[in-house]
Design a protein that fits this description.
Helix 1 packs antiparallel against helix 2. The chain is an alpha/beta fold and 527 residues long. The chain has three domains: 230 residues; 239 residues, Carbon-nitrogen hydrolase (Nitrilase/N-carbamoyl-D-aminoacid amidohydrolase, 4-Layer Sandwich); 34 residues, no CATH class. The strands form two sheets. Strands 1, 2, 3, 4, 5, 6 and 13 form a seven-stranded mixed sheet that branches. Strands 7-8-9-10-11-12 form a six-stranded mixed sheet, covered by helices on one side. Helices cover 46% and strands 15% of the residues. The longest helix has 40 residues.
Length: 527
């Protein structure tokens, strides 16, 4: 068991290296192979024997990947890391049983995707950080993103690692079968390169992303909220000056990041600042704002379109507020009330942020006629499939990401999130404009190429003419169904694996009783 545990530890750490700041995608499939091998070595032992390497693998991966959460608190970092690690421990335990089935690499790979899907939705809305597909933008698998989406790419990457273990075990016994499996895998990876997805487009629009920068130490948006707003107004006024002197074309839409105003933009000086910026640039402005909710004790995180001569219009509300960061689950329950009392920093969250459910894109009129339909995602929303998929399927032409991850500015979080955003651009076939409060802002093509980016901790305005995509790529339909298939496959596979084992165990016990040896303890076999 010691060897398996050490192998699980190394595999978990290797998997971290697939993501930024290391960013070696090949480590993803190799790490899955290592984890699968560590489980395979113990497949004939009782499940409790597998528990230790299973937990070690999950913890080595998630606790290390999420080390950037230390800026929130060591307890939050370790707590979330271990919670997410439990999902991978469950995968390892399920794998022990699924290895008893014919074609077990398929079952085990589906179980991996089921694990990613489940932890991306539960508990409290889930936390999908660390999905294999998030490491894929520069990999050979990326060409498949517009075809079968992030779920399908995760499945292929996991299957590569799992099948590698199976091939090593079977190559001497069944070389022809191994060769056939390898050929199928190569076809699945190569096919999207041969038959490349061509996203239809219809015209262009000019977007500008404003990175105003956070005053003071740069990691606290509440350090000087007046100056924070002033920075974004100033950068937008400079853009307006450049438009008037003819040095740059007028943008069709200007995008401010999340928390560009941390106060309700419909009141006092904040509204004056927003109106000043809109008048200065003479174009619609998508403002990231914290808005008072109708009910007391609640708040909204929104992207709001302000149009010259009209004022506020359409709004997108963040789909996935962060539990214990932007809202307190079950705040009024006795247990959670006790937890809140013990963790003093939860006092910094006096109001609960409500989740949005807008599935229609923001439709912004263009000065020359027509409109541009924007799929909005606010910060961590970009890591979830649902909101982006819904907006693209309903006609979004461009993806915009408004983000305020200033508290993580000196960590790998901002690079990991930017890689996720690159993957979303490839998956949706949309040019993606990122407005970050102080990094990383950028313009990403539908091929994942970074066309422009602003350095962190700077004030800058990015401008780009972006193609307006039309029609949803196959990924927007295929990926959700693959996720459902994976979730359904696990209980079916476990049932198929357990029933024959149970019948065999009962039969052996009856035979032992008939021989007068009923006191013999059945150890069971898992292979």
């Amino acid at each position: 068991m010691l060897v398996s545990t050490l192998l699980a530890l190394v595999s978990g750490l290797l998997l971290v290296g697939a993501f930024e700041p290391v960013g070696l995608w090949v480590l993803g499939p190799l790490a899955v192979a290592g984890a699968t091998w560590s489980v395979h070595r113990l497949r004939e032992r009782r499940l409790r024997v597998v528990l230790l390497p299973a937990i070690v693998f999950g913890a080595a991966f998630q606790v290390t990947l999420l080390v950037w959460m230390r800026v929130i608190g060591v307890d939050a970092w370790i707590g979330v890391g271990l919670l997410e690690a439990a999902f991978y421990a469950a995968w390892a335990l399920a794998t022990v049983l699924l290895m008893r089935l014919p074609a077990w690499p398929v079952w085990v790979s589906l179980a991996w995707v089921a694990t990613e899907t489940a932890r991306g939705s539960w508990p409290f809305g889930g936390f999908p950080w660390g999905r294999l597909a998030f490491a894929s933008p520069d990999s050979p698998y990326a060409a498949g993103l517009p075809w079968w989406g992030s779920v399908g790419v995760s499945l292929l990457m996991a299957a590569t690692g799992v099948t590698l273990v199976w091939a090593v075990l079977e190559v001497r016994r069944r070389p022809g079968t191994v060769a056939a499996a390898a050929a199928v895998g190569l076809v699945l990876v190569a096919a999207p390169h041969v038959v490349q997805h061509r996203q239809d487009t219809s015209g262009t629009a000019r977007l500008a992303a404003v990175q105003g920068n956070v005053p003071g130490p740069g990691d606290d948006v509440l350090y000087d909220t007046d100056q924070l707003l002033a920075n974004h107004v100033e950068a937008t006024e400079e853009l307006g000056d450049a438009v008037r002197d003819g040095s740059t074309p007028r943008p069709d839409v200007v995008v401010w990041p999340e928390n560009s105003t941390t106060s309700d933009p419909f009141t006092g000086a904040v509204r004056h600042g927003v109106d000043t910026a809109v008048d200065a640039v003479g174009a619609p402005l998508l403002v990231g704002a914290i808005v008072d909710a109708p009910a007391e004790g609640q708040v909204l995180n929104q992207g709001i379109v302000f149009t010259p001569g009209v004022g506020a219009g359409q709004r997108y509300t963040k789909w996935h507020p962060v539990p214990f960061g932007e809202f307190i689950p079950f705040r009024d329950s006795p247990l959670l009330g006790w937890v809140t009392d013990q963790v003093s920093r939860l006092d910094l969250i006096p109001r609960d942020m409500l989740a949005g459910d807008r599935s229609e894109p923001l439709r912004v009129p263009l000065a020359g006629g027509g409109e541009v339909a924007l799929a909005d995602a606010i910060c961590f929303d970009v890591a979830y499939d649902d909101g982006i998929t819904a907006q693209v399927r309903n006609g979004a032409q461009v993806l915009v990401v408004q983000t305020s991850n200033a508290m993580f500015i000196d960590t790998a979080q901002i690079d990991q999130q930017f890689e996720i955003t690159r993957m979303r651009a490839q998956e949706t076939g949309r040019t993606t404009v990122v407005a970050a409060i102080n990094g990383v802002s950028g313009v990403i093509g539908p091929d994942g190429e970074v066309r422009d980016a602003a350095a962190p901790r700077t004030q800058e305005v990015l401008e780009a003419d972006v193609a307006l995509a039309s029609g949803a790529p196959p990924s927007m339909t295929v990926a959700p169904w693959l996720g459902r298939l994976a979730l359904l496959s696990v209980p079916i596979g476990l049932l198929l694996a357990l029933l024959p084992y149970r019948r065999g165990r009962d039969r052996r016990r009856r035979e032992e009783d008939a021989d007068g040896r009923g006191d013999v303890r059945e150890e069971g076999r898992w292979a």
